[in-house]
Amino acid sequence: MSSNRLIVSGAEPYLFQGGRTACLIVHGFNSSTRENRDMGKFLAGQGFTVLGIRLPGHATTPADMRRVRWTDWLAAVEDGWNLLKGLSDHVFIMGQSLGGVLTMVAGSRYAFDGVIGISTPYGLLQGWQARLLHPGLLKFVSLFLPEINKPALSDNPDKLDERAPKFDLDPYPRYVTRALAEVLELIEVMRDGLPQVTAPLLLIQGRHDIVVEKDAMHLFGERVSSKQKEHLWMENSGHGITLSPEREIAFEAIFEFIKRVERGQRSPEEEPG
Asked: pTM score, two decimals?
């Protein structure tokens, strides 16, 4: 029997079976379940059933990323949602970065009990980039420039070096340009659907994140229809919150949010509607 693996070791999906409240966890772009497995273990330790999915095109080969479309990513989320519905009474969805975008899209389409976006971009590109690099143009550019270098993730890389080998869990050394076009298209879909998000919402963002707009949580709060909207700043984190030294603060905040929703309570620090 061949021992050749198709998926990078440690990037496999995971399922921790627990109680009748479930958490669906979605990883970020160019990453894998390695970025959120600690969060999954923490939530499982609180008694929840936890499913961490692997998005198509990730943790295999860059060639797979060139073929993948955003609908494939959303279909993987929908698969996870359908699986957990059969195992649980209540299902919460959460994701980081691209996973956060997919979380918001899923929250606008499916009846989750709560939605948790971590390091979730509202627009991703700003200024001249937003004017020039729309999805259609980026798809054309990808014919001549198939891959690009990874950008910085924090405004203080000397202190918050999220690209160091200890923290950088991206299986691919560069970003696939064609897949980035899918991310931009998905963000447009997400923004259009935000008024349909009605479930309780928690947003978490790092103060030193330079991928996500500084006012992203406010922009989301203005567009969603959720009556319960909460936000949390991670004062010493960049983009990769689930791997940051402050990650346990975020994990605990997610746990407390889920318990408040289950009890029908709101945080005293909840963002006003």
From this structure: 0.90
